[in-house]
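Re-run requested by the PI after the first attempt was lost when the workstation crashed. Everything re-entered from the original request form. Ligand of interest: flavin-adenine dinucleotide.
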Amino acid sequence: MIPQTFDYTAPATLDQALALIAQGAKPLAGGMSLIPMMKLRLAAPEHLVDIGRLKELNYIREDAGALHLGAGCTHYEVETSPLLRGKCPLLSETAAHIGDVQVRNMGTIGGSIAHADPSADYPAALQALEAKIVLRGAQSQRTVAASAFFLDTFATALEPGEIVSEIIVPVEEAGAGASYQKMAQPASGFAIVGVAARLRRSGGKIAMARIGVTGLAGRSFRATAAEKALENTAGSAAEIQAAAALVAQGVEANSDLHASAEYRKHLAAVYAGRALFAALARTA
Ligand SMILES: Cc1cc2nc3c(=O)[nH]c(=O)nc-3n(C[C@H](O)[C@H](O)[C@H](O)COP(=O)(O)OP(=O)(O)OC[C@H]3O[C@@H](n4cnc5c(N)ncnc54)[C@H](O)[C@@H]3O)c2cc1C
C-alpha cells in the first residue's frame, strides 16, 4: 500500500527537530514500525521529522556508575556495543532477540520504546533494569522510571512535543547475573511472552531479584510478587519454580490468534523459570 502524502524534513540538529515536533510534526527514527503503519494507513502524519540521522541521539557512554544510550542507537548497536556487553549484558542480549538483521540495523531503542508495542522485547529488560527514560521537548527535559513510562498498549508517558532522548541503565554489580528468554512469534519475532531476569547472590543467598515481563499483558511490568518470593532464599530449583509460578498470577493476560490468555500465562511461568535459572547460572 502507498502512504498518504506527507512532508519530510531531515534537520541538522536536535533543537531544530524539537522545534518542528513542538509544532506537531511526527518523529521518524528507524521507520520499522511507523512506515508499515503509514502504508496500511493506520497512521497518516502530515509532516515527518527524521531524527534517525541525528548524531546527538547516537551514543553509548558510561557516566557516574550508569550507562547512557542515545535514543537513536539501533538495535544492532545495542546488541554489539562492547561497553554494554561488558557492563549491562542483559540489554545487549535482549536487542539480539529483536526481529531479523534488517530490523536490527534500522530500528532504534528510542523508537521501539516510544511505540510501546505490548510484545516488544526491550520493555522486559528495561523494567528488570529499573531503567530511567529521559524525555525532551523544545523547552523541557524530565526523567521518568521505566515502570512509569509504559502506560498501556501503544501508550506511554510521552506528552505532545516530547521525544525519548536517552535511556539510562545501571552498570551491573559484581555477583549479578541476568538473562532474557522469550517465546517468539515465528513470523515477526515479536514476543508472545518474554521474561528478563536479574539476580545477585551474596553470602549464599539471593540478595536481589528483578523480573520484567513483556507480551503477557497490555503493557510490560515488573513481577514484584515473584521477586519478593525469591529474595533471601538460597535459589534452589524448587524456590525458582515457585517464584516463576507467581509471575502471571493476577495478571489480565492478552489473548489473540497466536496464544490464548491461559496459554500465555502458562508460557510466562515456563519462560520465567528459564530466565531465572539462566540468570542464576551467570551469577559469579
Ligand atoms: C519485520 C519486523 C519484525 C520485528 N520484530 C520485532 C521483535 O521481535 N521485537 C521487537 O521488540 N520489535 C520488533 N519489531 C519492531 C522494531 O523493533 C522497530 O524498530 C521498533 O518498534 C520501532 O523503532 P523505529 O526506530 O523503527 O521507530 P519508528 O518506526 O521510526 O517509529 C515508531 C514510533 O515511535 C515514534 N518515535 C520514534 N523515535 C522516537 C523518539 N526518540 N521519541 C519519541 N517518539 C519516537 C514515531 O513517531 C512512531 O510513532 C519488528 C519490526 C518489523 C518490521
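Saved to the shared folder this time. Residues 118 and 219 are 5 Å apart (CA to CA).
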